[in-house]
Amino acid sequence: MTDGAKVFKKSSPNGKITAYLTRRDFVDDLTRTWPVEGVVVVDHEYLRGRKVFVRVSISYRYGREEDEVMGLNFSKEFVLTKCEVMLKRVEERKAGGTVARLLEKLGAEACPFAILLPENAPPSVTLEPGAEGTKERRTVSGRQEGGDKERKKGREEDGVGKKF
């Protein structure tokens, strides 16, 4: 009988890169922060010698989306960390728990990853409005992004910039 662990999936629009996360909430308990763990499945024919990276960033929104006109954005992005996903042979992959079950289910094209968030990563963020600022609530959202190294940032077919 299975324990029913939740897995979060996000694919690029062309379906060539898919990321599976074991959780979306990462707790900072003052001694350590839970790592970002998951599995990336990449079509090796599509990859053709390029590298795959996973990036964790946070976005600060300080205005309403409907007020964004003519390319003016009311949000900023802060990259916490990034790492290359090493595409290893099946016998070299080591993982436990939910990631191990995902590797068994997804087959030879699946590759595990784990990213430790930096010690100086903010556990929470407050954006203070200016003197003439409004009292509207500000939001912060986390993102995990993936894509190959030779593509430009923001290209939809690589899955870059997709929220989880």
From TrEMBL:
<dbReference type="InterPro" id="IPR014753">
    <property type="entry name" value="Arrestin_N"/>
</dbReference>
<feature type="region of interest" description="Disordered">
    <location>
        <begin position="120"/>
        <end position="164"/>
    </location>
</feature>
<dbReference type="Pfam" id="PF00339">
    <property type="entry name" value="Arrestin_N"/>
</dbReference>
<comment type="similarity">
    <text>Belongs to the arrestin family.</text>
</comment>
<dbReference type="GO" id="GO:0002031">
    <property type="term" value="P:G protein-coupled receptor internalization"/>
</dbReference>
<protein>
    <recommendedName>
        <fullName>Arrestin-like N-terminal domain-containing protein</fullName>
    </recommendedName>
</protein>
<feature type="domain" description="Arrestin-like N-terminal">
    <location>
        <begin position="23"/>
        <end position="130"/>
    </location>
</feature>
<dbReference type="GO" id="GO:0007165">
    <property type="term" value="P:signal transduction"/>
</dbReference>
<dbReference type="InterPro" id="IPR011021">
    <property type="entry name" value="Arrestin-like_N"/>
</dbReference>
<dbReference type="GO" id="GO:0005737">
    <property type="term" value="C:cytoplasm"/>
</dbReference>
<dbReference type="InterPro" id="IPR000698">
    <property type="entry name" value="Arrestin"/>
</dbReference>
<dbReference type="GO" id="GO:0001664">
    <property type="term" value="F:G protein-coupled receptor binding"/>
</dbReference>
<dbReference type="InterPro" id="IPR014756">
    <property type="entry name" value="Ig_E-set"/>
</dbReference>
<keyword id="KW-0716">Sensory transduction</keyword>
<feature type="compositionally biased region" description="Basic and acidic residues">
    <location>
        <begin position="133"/>
        <end position="164"/>
    </location>
</feature>
